[in-house]
Amino acid sequence: MYKENVIEFTDNNTREVNELIHQKIQFWYEHVLFSGLWWVNLAFAILPWLLWLGFRKKESTNRLLFSGQFVIIVSLVLDLTGDQLGLWYYRFNVIPVFPTYVPWDLTLMPVTIMCFLQVKPDYNPYIKAVLFALVSSYLGEPFFQWMGIYVLTHWKFFYSVPIQFAIYLMAHYMARGNRYSPLGS
How many C-alpha atoms does 61 have within 13 Å on its Cβ side? Predict the structure, then answer.
């Protein structure tokens, strides 16, 4: 049986976290919802998917979505981990109970990678991975920091480069399976 102090600590900690989440939701409702940045973030969450729907090669939809789903899962897990470890945090969330930046994890990362996979599919994947890693780490992240959405506490942009590189390469190799029709440009 667990010691009583462990149970008491866990219960108190859960109550405190729930109270902070309630305060965050109330603040979001009063100050963030329908603000200019909220609308911009909503556009970042929806518009890239709409553009991708028109841009994608329809025969490659399943392979691209398979890779995109992988990117979403990895991005969410890493983003949650970084947030919970206090490496960074986000302001102006589209949805207040998600500590991650929904437009980045659910849209911008996967859609960008799916577009990279589709354009020049026979081009060297390592070069494309380097390009994706540099653009997302040195343009994407600073852009969201400049907007006041992304706050680095114990993280540097260059830490993201090898992670973004690996995510792109894994998505590339997942899209290359023999069970799909060939990618086309």
Answer: 7
- Which amino acid is located at 116 in the chain? F
Nearest to 171 by CA among 82, 58, 67: 67
Contact call for residues 76 and 116 (beta carbons, < 8 A): no
Say if 180 falls within a structural domain: no
Assess whether 91 and 6 both reside in one domain. Answer: no
Is residue 81 domain-shared with residue 117, that is, in the same domain?
yes
> How far is residue 2 CA from its own chain's centroid?
37
What are 169's two structure tokens? 């390469």
Residue span of the structural domain in which 16 resides: 1-32
Q: Each residue of 134-180: pLDDT tens digit?
A: 999 999 999 999 999 999 999 999 999 999 999 999 999 999 876 65
**CB-CB contact of 30 with 38 (8 Å):** no
Please tell me whether residues 15 and 104 are part of one structural domain: no
Of 62, 35, 67, the C-alpha closest to 147 is 35
Does residue 182 form part of some domain? no
CB burial string 13-37: b at 16+ within 10 A, e below: eeeeeeeeeeeeeeebeeebeeeee
Contact call for residues 160 and 141 (beta carbons, < 8 A): yes
